[in-house]
């Protein structure tokens, strides 16, 4: 494989921003330094002072394959992700069939081979009756086990208390949870249905899928994890209330130990709030629900203050015609991978976060949390998964959306940074305008 030299870059890595050159060789970061001279035959890219980051690792996507390829598939969504600077993804088990055992898991890895533009990992899902499959899971075969402690797309609710207790006791990998209390949500939904029928206003979504429902379920997950010493990662925190439940401070503590229990929020909770239902309606209907401006503010602060450990997307595409249905029939979830990093960098532009914090939450932290081997950092010997940021504003247009569903909740919004280039395993995959080459993603490996 030929080598590439990126010169005059502003590297952002492990809490530092510094000027350097970076050489890619055989898919890896071969050298980071200043004044690296180009070798004969070497491709040279002048970064002209622009920011160069490790590719983001999105630990929460729904790429819909197998079974819902009319909405999305691994090829289309990973292409959108790479265009957005996300070079690795971890995909959720609520597919059809759901990923409940080793065969379904390996089927997904086989599907991704040669078709995924980014590096890929697939979660095993939990159900009320696959405890044996969870116990027997090879920890090198999946980033973790996903437990829906609240029902959402795909009907994978685990609500048997004994099963939950056993899963938390016996799981051989980190557990990741969707925390919302389904009985509370069902009761609220019945109340709103009695008033409105199926045509409930979209703005009621955060009252139906309430903050109390989030709190109750998150508390249950934390108590189970504490009882059994489980490594627990609570996905998509959407309320200020839940933040008090989590330990503030770096994911890897000063003494080198790692937090046992970690929290994640998603880009839509930092960029939208209740006021946006008026213009976007079901387009921003998702589970958990986007809540109040005060929650959004608290969540941004919690990212900055290290209460939230990980930033992800929960990319969950649905078709516009599905979203156009009445409330009770409109599916939850929104496509996010293509514009998630630029949306996060908008918080840097606004002075709310630093680029280092975005890199920590969106690249280093998922690698630390899931023991991802050889990725997530700008380090010599690590995979050359890289993203170059150009500070030229652009406005999101529907015709530029690469996700199969063909729309974005950010349409019409202007971002102040764009993705100038993305390399996956040392190969240019996005040149700032279009995808180039062919899918080059690899199976994620775990050092555990
Ligand atoms: O909004 C959501 N959509 N939340 C989930 O938990 C699932 C996801 C989906 O798969 O559509």
TrEMBL record:
<dbReference type="Pfam" id="PF01979">
    <property type="entry name" value="Amidohydro_1"/>
</dbReference>
<keyword id="KW-0378">Hydrolase</keyword>
<keyword id="KW-0479">Metal-binding</keyword>
<dbReference type="InterPro" id="IPR032466">
    <property type="entry name" value="Metal_Hydrolase"/>
</dbReference>
<protein>
    <submittedName>
        <fullName>Dihydroorotase</fullName>
        <ecNumber>3.5.2.3</ecNumber>
    </submittedName>
</protein>
<dbReference type="InterPro" id="IPR011059">
    <property type="entry name" value="Metal-dep_hydrolase_composite"/>
</dbReference>
<dbReference type="InterPro" id="IPR006680">
    <property type="entry name" value="Amidohydro-rel"/>
</dbReference>
<comment type="similarity">
    <text>Belongs to the metallo-dependent hydrolases superfamily. DHOase family. Class I DHOase subfamily.</text>
</comment>
<dbReference type="GO" id="GO:0004151">
    <property type="term" value="F:dihydroorotase activity"/>
</dbReference>
<dbReference type="InterPro" id="IPR002195">
    <property type="entry name" value="Dihydroorotase_CS"/>
</dbReference>
<comment type="function">
    <text>Catalyzes the reversible cyclization of carbamoyl aspartate to dihydroorotate.</text>
</comment>
<dbReference type="InterPro" id="IPR050138">
    <property type="entry name" value="DHOase/Allantoinase_Hydrolase"/>
</dbReference>
<feature type="domain" description="Amidohydrolase-related">
    <location>
        <begin position="52"/>
        <end position="427"/>
    </location>
</feature>
